[in-house]
Amino acid sequence: MAVLDRQRKTWLLLAVLALMVNLPLLHSWYLGWRVEQSGTDVTATVVQEETSCVAEGDRLLLPLRVPPAAGWGEQNGLCPRVDRETYDAAIADGQVTVRVLEDRPGAYAIDGEVGSPVLLIGTLVIDVFLVLMVFLSRRYGKPRTSVVRISALGDVEPGPPDAAYEEEGDGVVLVRGQVVGLEPDEVVLDTGLREVVVILDGFANSVGWQQPAQVRGRLVE
To answer: Residue by residue, what is the 3-state secondary structure of the chain?
Structure first.
């Protein structure tokens, strides 16, 4: 039914959005796991004349170049943020051991590296916002649409733009609303607080998708 289809689409949209938000963090964790499990230790050279790796504030950025054996080609430069002990030792020795993924530039790990919490914090903030949005939507949003089924007593015809659900007695109702579902033997009209499934029972429907329609029918238990 249309109401269920919309609910599925809403949850699917939220799931896709949550996946897009969390994918960078998950990918970062996955690369870190791969480096730890399948990485190769190489000796990287400290390149103190590297101008693209400039310390900012109290951040210690260590300019490195991995050897050709890593298979990184021209993308062999690194600029990890490290602690003071690692920085001083690397500058003194002129080299440092780095675990890398061969043929995967930028995938590496180095003892003493100081990770940035920006990606984690940013992802958590957006996740909390998504959860809060879902909670507020379910708590204060539009009331759930109920579903009513009727058996048509005549053709489904074009109707006025205003939605209506009028009980005429003896289980007969007059329904006006937008067409939100079309099947060979059924039409679904949205009246606002209700979605009315109209069983055609041999009657015709001349109204298209998302067009205003009206029909009289008898309630189906």
So the answer is: CHHHHHHHHHHHHHHHHHHHHHHHHHHHHHHHHHHHHHCEEEEEEECCCCCCCCCCCCCCECCEECCHHHCCCCCCEECCEECHHHHHHHHHHCEEEEEECCCCCCCEECCCECCCCHHHHHHHHHHHHHHHHHHHHHHHCCCCCEEEEEEECCCEEECCCCCEEEEEECCEEEEEEEEEEEECCEEEEECCCEEEEEECCCCCECCCCCCEEEEEEEECC
Instruction: Indicate the pLDDT class of residue 7, thresholds 50, 70 and 90.
Output: low
Cβ-in-10-Å burial (0-12, 13-18, 19+) of 103 comes to exposed
* Token pair belonging to 77: 């430069």
Does any domain span residue 20?
yes
* Whether residues 80 and 180 fall in one domain: no
Q: Within 10 Å of residue 80's Cβ, how many Cβ atoms?
A: 23
My answer on whether 86 and 158 are in the same domain is no
Give the per-residue pLDDT at 106. Answer: 82
Q: What is the pLDDT of residue 52?
A: 63
* Contact in structure between 111 and 62 (CB atoms under 8 Å): no
- Is 126 inside any structural domain? no
pLDDT at 2 over 50: no
Give the domain-ending residue among 75, 104, 120: 120
pTM for this entry = 0.54
